[in-house]
User: Which sequence fits this backbone?
């Protein structure tokens, strides 16, 4: 059997399962999530054994320490995965929720209700916990899922998928609801991206390269996630202590994630006071600061920032800094370079705060808060499958609701047109 | 300048205009819509002159009468176009509408508001009124639009686009908000489909061939519209007179549109009574009826229906009929062959009505009403840009709301994470 035939069989099974999953009761889905959690805990030594194989290969290939850290599992991380599934069980079931209804003049009653998307493909890298998280969120929202993890985590993903799939099936979830692509052959991704007959949507989770490859090659609808060139703009009227704290938090608290800051924009009027304050603090935290010409005139010894810097998601302890003449220049810089993820202004000026939120085009636009809050849990969704940076279907953090579609139910008594 | 360069210039202008359009006041947009309507009326003789050129070419190429009818404009149709723009002006502006807000435990206030999608590409065929309709709906929803009509209507589309673009600009709409691709070179579509840097979404409107080509070749997100293999299932408990009326309406009232019926499914228990009733009535209306083997055992002289019939959107006065053993067989047939558009059951059985609406996967699932009601105006949206048959972003008739995205506005007082 060719690779394509094998994948089509899995996709067809998922599609078949999706019909039954769409009408599975909330109670049955929650029981399965608890069973999956318990199975992960019960098989933790097996999971750690398989994870050790991935770590071993990765070490031999010279993987960086931060990548190794993402890949590595331990008892605590397995408990967290299990806990995540239990939390998903506790969230309200979006399926069947009414989104509105009308009674038309001709007597037709029209209701709009949430239904699953159908079959969701998740293509992801590195962190093996995505296998359990994504499977749990898709199950709760009544969707079948096809998981395709990165080759670096193949042993870990495989054993996690196997454990949760078995537990879900035994708890009454339709067979085929959770599919895992076991090959590391890159061709498998290409095949998935064109299975329009079986897949309703593909969500890539990973680096910019993965996401671009999926967007470019997929004929199945894609929800683009995650790249973030996020800015903090410190306005002339900003409380400088607040601006420093927000900047440090946005850059330093977790530089590898998409909602962290890459570029700091500073109003010229306070540049002389603020730049020394913030750059000293950044350096203390080990941040490499690159500055525009003006920035360097206020603070000596910085690496010059180039055109490339404004476009770069460092994902690391590096920061580019630019001095701007006013709010309009800040907005224009953001419009040119941002990835429509998260942007913040620090200001005490009411009009500027309002204008920034209205004019900046991004999923999340902040006033006086760190961009690091763009996250499904921080937004109160109780879960997150990724952060959409596109405008279609979902924007910003995606919870269970974003994994649903809708249908209209129309009830009449013989109406014709 | 190459074709690609020309189109990129238009797309870049549209993207630039979209920033200003996103914050244009409702009042300014409405004034522009009224000005566009007045301009269409004032230039109606010029529009008819240009339309006559299209009709002339089409006649020489032997275009069918029904296609010619779609292409043809007259004074009344121009007045309708203008009236459509005025109606769009009267609809509520979706931009800025709040979709919910929360106050988080840490004091962050999170609001979700509607914003435009940005730049919308519309690729359409035949009817020149789409040029005005689509431009009006995109303008009202704060989106820039790139219009690409079919070559058969090039003269008509060009003059309509020119008249409304000029009127909109003079009324204060940002320059570049309405773009029209003037070439009939098919390469232009290919170029548009890959301008991810400029376009946020592409909506194809036309036949199955056009839609498939767009879905297959576009890297820009697409909203699939319009193909409809719709079914009517007449259950054992149906009121047969109601079932006949609904079937006739669904097939005959406008066979060329996507919400009309292609296949009639009849419960075996009432096939003997119902088939003669409905087939006689269909024949009286000039419908060619093709039947499965069982259907033909109840009603002699019908053309046999083949596997291909169940898959076909006739768009014409042709109907395929299948006798099924029960509700489950009807649901299974629909799951196998429908295009997820509109489906209806005629029944007096409460449990079957409920099961049909729950189990059938389609944008609109009816009980005791004609599928012909799947339409933005009939649903009370006041407008329609097309009918989505995909599950992502929009499903069923798309009004102004479906032409929007959202953003989160988060206000704090120095919160960090």
Assistant:
């Amino acid at each position: 059997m060719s690779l394509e035939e094998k994948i089509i069989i899995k996709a067809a099974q998922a599609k078949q399962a999706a019909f039954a999953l769409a009408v599975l009761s909330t109670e049955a889905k929650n029981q399965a999530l608890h069973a999956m959690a318990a199975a992960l805990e019960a098989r933790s030594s097996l999971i750690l054994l398989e994870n050790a194989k991935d770590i071993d290969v990765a070490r031999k290939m010279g993987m960086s320490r931060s990548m190794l850290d993402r890949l590595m599992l331990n008892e605590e991380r397995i408990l967290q995965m299990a806990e995540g599934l239990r939390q998903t069980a506790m969230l309200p079931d979006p399926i069947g929720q009414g989104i509105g209804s009308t009674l038309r003049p001709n007597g037709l009653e029209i209701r709009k209700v949430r239904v699953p998307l159908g079959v969701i493909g998740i293509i992801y890298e590195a962190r093996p916990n995505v296998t359990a998280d994504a499977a749990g969120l898709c199950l709760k929202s009544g969707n079948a899922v096809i998981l395709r993890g990165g080759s670096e985590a193949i042993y870990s993903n495989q054993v996690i998928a196997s454990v949760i799939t078995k537990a879900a099936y035994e708890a009454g979830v339709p067979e085929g609801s959770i599919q895992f692509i076991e090959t590391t052959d890159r061709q498998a991704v290409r095949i998935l991206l064109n299975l329009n007959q079986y897949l309703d949507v593909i969500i890539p989770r990973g680096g910019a390269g993965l996401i671009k490859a999926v967007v470019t090659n997929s004929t199945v609808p894609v929800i683009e996630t995650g790249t973030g060139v996020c800015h903090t703009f410190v306005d002339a009227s900003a409380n400088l202590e607040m601006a420093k704290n927000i900047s440090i938090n946005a850059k330093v608290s977790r530089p590898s994630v998409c909602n962290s800051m890459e570029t700091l924009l500073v109003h010229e009027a306070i540049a002389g006071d603020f730049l020394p304050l913030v750059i000293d603090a950044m350096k203390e935290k080990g941040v490499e600061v690159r500055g525009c010409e003006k920035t360097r005139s206020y603070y000596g010894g910085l690496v010059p920032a180039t055109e490339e810097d404004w476009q770069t998601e460092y994902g690391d302890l590096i920061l580019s800094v630019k001095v701007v003449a006013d709010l309009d220049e800040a907005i224009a810089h953001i419009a040119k370079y941002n990835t429509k993820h998260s942007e913040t202004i620090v200001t005490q000026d009411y009009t500027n705060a309002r204008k920034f939120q209205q004019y900046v085009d991004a999923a999340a636009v902040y006033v006086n808060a760190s961009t690091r809050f763009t996250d499904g849990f921080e937004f109160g969704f109780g879960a997150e499958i990724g952060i959409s940076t596109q405008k279609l279907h979902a924007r910003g953090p995606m919870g269970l609701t974003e994994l649903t579609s809708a249908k209209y139910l129309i009830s009449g008594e013989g109406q014709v047109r």
User: Anything to note?
Assistant: Chain A has two domains: 3-224+390-411, 230-373. The longest strand of chain A covers residues 404-415.
